[in-house]
Amino acid sequence: MSSPEIASLSWGHMKVKGCSSSYKDCKVWPGGSRAWDWRETGTDHHPGVQPADLEEVLQKGVATLVIGRGMSEALQVPSSTVEFVRQRGVELIVLQTEKAITEYNNLVGQGAKVGGIFHSTC
């Protein structure tokens, strides 16, 4: 099962190939995607992405996880979250969202087992 490509990105709007709905923030993994609702885990720009935000994607058996920090990189990724991913043996790539999506799509094109979480605004 392959990871879905991110078909388009603009401020506050992402489209995942093969999915009829669009997302403000999203999670993607081999075989699926869904909205990333920060309220589920109490995430905010500070302190940023929590391990609980990543758990669902990591459980899909990804080898690489890409995090998009937003268009202006306002979303933080604490060192504790980085360590959480690394302890699971998963490669972590953290970038500004446009760059993150380019990297994610490149990995999808190579057939990698890649997942991602992307923030589409600040």
Automatic annotation (TrEMBL):
Lineage: superkingdom: Eukaryota
Annotated keywords: Cytoplasm
InterPro entries: AAMDC, MTH938-like_sf, NDUFAF3/AAMDC
A Pfam family that the UniProt record links to this protein: DUF498
GO cellular component, one term: cytoplasm
Keyword Lyase: no
Keyword presence, Cytoplasm: yes
Subcellular location: Cytoplasm
Biological processes annotated in GO: positive regulation of fat cell differentiation
PANTHER family from the UniProt entry: MTH938 DOMAIN-CONTAINING PROTEIN
Family affiliation: Belongs to the AAMDC family.
Name by which UniProt lists this protein: Mth938 domain-containing protein
Phylogenetic classification of the source organism: Eukaryota, Metazoa, Chordata, Craniata, Vertebrata
